[in-house]
Design a protein that fits this description.
Helix content is 29%, strand content 21%. The chain has helices spanning 36-43, 86-102, 121-132, 152-163, 182-193, and strands at residues 6-12, 25-30, 62-67, 71-75, 106-114, 137-142, 170-173. The protein has a 7-stranded mixed beta sheet, with helices on both faces. The longest helix has 17 residues, at 86-102.
Length: 208
């Protein structure tokens, strides 16, 4: 993205800490270590705005990143990491559920799933629940660079079949390493957030 103004704003665990400027919000959910931080960094062409970690379960809050003063990316704590205590997982569950069910500014849930593997029980539960509560969902198959191009659609079908994928939802094959799927995902985000039509040449939304 060119001429981008992207910044970390706040780590929130309750509605009292959420931003008050009413910008549209795009939430990112997925299993721990699925690549949420890497996706954020690739989407804005920055290396270290969202901190990546080799230690799963590192994100323990709702992390808000403001992009071009047009929208927020909201990075949710990853699920499925066994070393996080049951009590801690229950705490996460409460504020994540509260956010996803009650946040009016939330326009899209980007649900990240590792393209290399069938969806886990956690992936399936997350997708089914997000559909049950009526969220606008885009499923992103991450780490596409780890498998050959000829197998992308086969792996995408395995994920869709495992989730019981709703054909009205979007599905993006993505690689944070190569940028594959970046422009397609920006188009989906822009529509969901009802951003101005004018864009940068590389597909990212342009600030007014």
């Amino acid at each position: 993205m060119k001429n981008v103004n992207a910044e970390f704003i706040i780590s929130a665990v309750s509605p009292a800490q959420y931003p008050l400027d009413a910008l549209p919000e795009i939430a990112l959910a997925g299993r721990s270590n699925v690549g949420k931080s890497s996706l954020i960094n690739r989407m804005i062409n920055r290396k270290n705005l969202a901190r990546t970690s080799s230690q799963p379960g590192k994100t323990q809050t709702l992390n808000y990143y403001r992009i071009n003063n047009l929208l927020y990316f909201v990075d949710l704590p990853g699920y499925g990491y066994a070393k996080v205590s049951k009590t801690r997982r229950e705490e996460w569950g409460k504020f994540i559920e509260g956010y996803l069910t009650g946040r009016e500014e939330l326009k899209l849930l980007i649900h990240l799933i590792d393209l290399r593997h069938p969806p886990t029980a956690g992936d399936i539960a997350m997708y089914e629940w997000s559909k049950h509560i009526g969220l606008n969902v885009c499923v992103v198959g991450t780490k596409a660079d780890k498998i050959s191009k000829g197998h992308w659609q086969k792996h995408a079908k395995i994920i869709k079949d495992g989730l019981g994928f709703d054909p009205r939802d979007s599905f993006v094959v993505f690689s944070s390493e190569t940028g594959l799927g970046r422009e397609q995902l920006w188009e989906i985000i822009s529509r969901a957030a009802e951003l101005p039509v004018e864009q940068e040449a590389d597909g990212a939304p342009k600030a007014p």
